[in-house]
Amino acid sequence: MGTWLLLPVFQKSLLIVSQWANIPAAVAEHTVLAYIPFLQQPPTHTHTGSVPPSDDPTMSVSESAAEKAPPVKTDDPYGPRRWHSRLVKLSGKNRALNEFSVERLTERHDHNLVMLHGYGAGLGFFYKNFEGLSRLPGWRIYALDLLGMGRSSRPPFRIPNKDRQKSIMEAENWFVDALEEWRLERKIEKFTLLGHSLGGYMAVAYALKYPGHLNKLVLASPVGVPEDPYAVNAALPDPAESTLANEFTQDEQTATTKSTPGDNNNFLNARSKAQANNSGNDSANNAPRKPLPKWLTYLWDANISPFSLVRWTGPFGPRFVSGWTSRRFSHLPPDEAQALHNYAYSLFRLRGSGEYALAYILAPGAFARSPLIRRIHGVGRQPIASASSSSSSVQAETKRENGIPIVFMYGENDWMDIAGGYAAKQKILEEKERLLKLADDDERKSDNGSAKCIMIKKAGHHLYLDGWEEFNEVMREEMTEVSGKGP
Questions:
Q1: Per-residue burial over 336-358, b = 16 or more CB atoms within 10 Å of its CB, e = otherwise
Q2: What is the pTM of this model?
Q3: Phi, psi dihedrals of residue 72, rounded to the nearest 5°
Q4: Active site residues
Q5: Would you report the helix, strand and coil content of the chain in percent, each value rounded to 5?
Q6: Cα(241)–Cα(410) distance, integer angstroms
Q7: What is the DSSP letter of 156?
Q8: Counting Cβ atoms within 10 Å, is residue 1 exposed (0-12), middle (13-18) or buried (19+)?
Q9: What are the beta bridge partners of residue 113?
Q10: Which helix (H) or strand (E) segment is 363 a member of?
Q11: pLDDT tens digits, residue range 299-339?
């Protein structure tokens, strides 16, 4: 008899779950962006995600002109500003990027900021940053959904190459080639690139493959920086503190308020941890690491993404996702937290595409198969071809980039340890010193290479959301520095 009494409760739960499950991605994105200050009715194109995932799990692309969204103009204390939502078509079948942008009116725009989200997320997660970053004169702000994620199109993800290194490169190229094609479509010559987590990893990959287009590179808690986590290297983060599992288990209260004695969470935290590790005995330093669960390694190597598990749970998917969103967004007002939950779930439900790149790029535990620490020193130092005209022809003259500023940003309680940022900074500065020893006076004066690490207080891995006010302030300072150097 007790079981029958529970039936109405179960039915009500299913009804609530069904309502969550039937929210189209475009509607969920629109709801989140409506929380942008001064923008009560954000523009939202409906070329993708206009119907619930249950009706169109592949998220087909509509080319109808009726799906376009007219721009929205706001007259506000920092405006006037104009807001756009577009789907930018790329070459090939079913390739297009979802774009949200804002520009200040009545002034010339010499600078562009492009923002890339992390794994499985979408541009809506930056809703706390659009207004604050678009206050600066002369800047256009663009946020993109990576190909195969968010509301960008979701073509099948296939890597036919069996060679390990080539497979990694193909997986990276799948994303960065789309970004470069978008840049060409938008006719943007130079821009500042901000990437969070996986977006940071891809930002580095882009800078290495397509040199000459970045004014500055900002890496917000980038994934894939450290070397092999099982190597005994005190300067790199411990696997127990820097694994993808922490993204789904770290409590937001811990991320935004955690504090420990001494300097455990201050800006020099990474260095003091490295010193502490080095001062320990050999037996402790050489102790075998705790292995990842076999089931996790199996799923990872089988390229079964976390979002596949959400899809397999059917009507209980929202409850599954809410365990993550309730932890991650608990510091937000309840209505905003619910909007982000609906948005995240609407994206997780869609057909898998770009998410399947993860197993090619990262080993189990979120450490890169081709670590950025081995490549980061080459950012801003790549050969580029410039056209120099002669009396009868145009010849391609190869020169090398003269460096770009690289900024590493981490949350005070980030599960991605800032030690990786310090190690990368050291590599970058060592490469600059090596090159300048061989340079002439003009090359030394024109060198723009630099690197620094910044910590956002009371923030976790999603520092742009946890500590959005300080994050926006730091970003405006970095952007102002670019503005001071001219177009």
A1: bbbbbbbbbbbbbbbbbbbbbbb
A2: 0.82
A3: -115, 130
A4: 197, 414, 461
A5: 40, 15, 40
A6: 14
A7: P
A8: exposed
A9: 141, 192
A10: strand 362-363
A11: 445 444 454 444 444 444 454 445 555 667 778 899 999 99
Residues in the chain: 487
Q: At what angle do helices 25-33 and 334-348 cross, to 10 degrees?
A: 150
Provide the Cα torsion 373, 378, 379, 381; round to 10°.
Answer: 160
User: 3-state DSSP call for residue 72?
Assistant: strand
Q: Please, what is the end-to-end C-alpha distance for the chain in angstroms? A: 75
pLDDT digits (tens, 9 = 90+) for 433-460: 999 999 999 999 999 999 999 999 999 9
Distance CA 140, CA 374 (A): 33
Structure tokens at 481: 């520095």
pLDDT, tens digit, 9 for 90 and up, residues 363-416: 776 688 899 999 999 999 999 876 554 444 444 567 889 999 999 999 999 988
The CA distance from 80 to 186, in Å, is 22
Token representation of residue 161: 């190459």
Token pair 């309840």 is found at: 334
Cβ pair 203, 219 in contact under 8 A: yes
- How many Cα atoms occupy the beta-carbon half-sphere of 297 within 13 Å? 4
